[in-house]
Each structure stands twice: as C-alpha cells, then as structure tokens.
Amino acid sequence: MTKCITTVKEMQTLTSQFKREGQSIGFVPTMGALHDGHLTMMRQSRSENDISIISVFVNPLQFGPNEDYEAYPRQIEQDTQAASSAGVDYVFAPSVDEMYPNTLGITLKVGRMAEVLEGAQRPGHFEGVVTVVNKLFNIVQPDRAYFGKKDAQQLAIVEKLVQDFNHPIEIRGIDIVREDDGLAKSSRNVYLTEQERQEAVHLSKSLTLAKEMYDKGERHSANIINAVTDYLHNHTSGEVQEVAVYSYPELEEQDVIHGQIFISLAVKFSKARLIDNIII
Ligand code: PAF
C-alpha cells in the first residue's frame, strides 16, 4: 500500500529509520503528472531497492516568470495510484511552504554547464533544479536516484552535483520512453493541439536522420545541425528554438564530433516547448 507523506519531518524520520535498519532506498524525483517514462523509473527503483520513494513537487524555483508554473498539471490522486501500481512505497508530496518555509539564504549556483542548451533558454532553471534536488536528497537520503535521459542536461548536472557535494548516491540514467510513433513521453505533451501532436513525431524522426548521418560518417556538427533544422522547419509549424551538438556529459560544444555526443533539440509549439535528444 503506497503511503503519501507531506511533511519533511515525517519523511526524514522514516528514511533515517530505514537507513538504520540497513534497507536500501530508491528515489524517483518528479513534478507529478506521471507517465510511462516515470513508471519505468519507478519499476527500476522497485526492483533495485528495498524501499522505493517518489516525490511529487512542482518546484517553483525552476520555472521562469513566463513559464507554465501555474498551469503545470497537478493530479496527486491519479499520481499516487500510478505510483502504487509501480510498487512505490511512499509518495513524498510536500506543499511549497513545507519545502520553502523561509526565503532561502543560501542558493546553489551552477556554472558553465547551465549556460548552454536549456539553461541558456531558461535562466535560473538549473539553479532551481539543483536546489530542490539537493534538498530532496537530504530529506529522502536515497542510495540510488533515477533521472530520465530525456532531460540529459539535467542528468549531467545532477551527476556533477552529487560528485561536487559528495552525496553518497548512485545516479541512474534511464532511457527515454517513447510513444509508438516515437514522440518522447512528457507531462507537457498534453498541451499539444491535435495538429501539433501529429507534427511532434518529427522531433524524434529528425534525430533518426541525425543518427543516420553520423552512422554514414558525418562528423561536422554544422552539417548535422543544418539538416535537422531544415527537416524540422519543413515538417512542423513549431518554432525551432534549438538544434545543438554537445559532448556528453561535459556539455561542451563540438564543431567536429569525437567521443560521446548528445544531439539536442527544442521546438516551441503554441503551448508546449518540447525537447528531445539522442546520445551517440
Ligand atoms: O525532472 C523533473 O521532473 C524535475 O526537474 C525534478 C528533477 C523533479 C526537480 O524538480
């Protein structure tokens, strides 16, 4: 039976007790509106740990002034049921006042890794993410934490957070879960109109095109970026906000590709900004 916890004190008391008992804790941080991508992470957490915990918290710190904080889907009962079906033991769902009772006197600053890609488009976003993730790690005290590769920049930054601040936590990156037609699952897909939903399939198709170019030996990022950008312009009505090739996980721009890379794109539709990527 999945239990919902709303206070930091109760969550921390429970997790401290599990630690004393030598039970391993798996943790999936989320903002709710759970979909199959989250469920995959929860099942993995369930299978690798004694206790499985998720958080459902729409973190105001990571939303910019013109972003969808107010409109972000909130459906805690549905989410608790979904978590229960994936074998989660506890859903930690605090209020904003519970997480941030006072104005923060100390904040975390992400350096160069937040100045590119999503971070460049959304100033302050990754500071908000690492601040809440740092707090959640201290509250939940997990042994393993699960993050989707769809937010590959977030995953790289969280790995750096864990390394730089010595959190004794193993970060597990989970492959992107896609709809049958290839659209990456996202809580924001619900914002798409019918027409946009049909066009959105071309995000993953454009990444397949990029992979094909790479497989055929293309190593100049500009050629891949131009081909993907043209493809997206021709197949979607959305605004192509980003097509980029970066090293992964270092997140350094690559003119000529070598080593592991990450091709990332962002397309803004009328109400949804969709991102997708492929790590090669
Ligand atoms: O990926 C998300 O849903 C959020 O950025 C996270 C990690 C739960 C922090 O609020």
Could you please describe the fold and organization of this structure?
The protein has 280 residues and is an alpha/beta fold. The protein folds into two domains: 3-174, HUPs (Rossmann fold, 3-Layer(aba) Sandwich), CATH 3.40.50; 187-279, Pantoate-beta-alanine ligase, C-terminal domain (Pantoate--beta-alanine Ligase, Chain: A,domain 2, 2-Layer Sandwich). The protein has nine helices and nine strands. It has a six-stranded parallel sheet with strand order 1-4-3-2-5-6, sandwiched between helices. The chain has a three-stranded antiparallel sheet with strand order 7-8-9, with helices on one face. α6 (125-140) crosses α7 and α8 (194-215) runs antiparallel to α9. The longest helix has 22 residues, at 194-215. The mean pLDDT is 97. It binds pantoate. Pantoate is lined by residues 29-31, 59, 62, 129, 132-133, 151, 154.
Strand content: 15-25%
Low-confidence stretches: none
CATH topology (fold) name of the largest domain: Rossmann fold
Structural class: alpha/beta
Identify the CATH class of the largest domain.
Alpha Beta
Q: Helix count?
A: 9
Oligomer: single chain
> N-to-C terminal Cα separation, in Å?
40 Å
Strand line-up of the largest beta sheet: 1-4-3-2-5-6
Largest sheet: 6 strands, parallel
Binding site for ATP: 31-38, 148-151, 177, 185-188
Family: Belongs to the pantothenate synthetase family.
Binding site for beta-alanine: 62
Protein name: Pantothenate synthetase
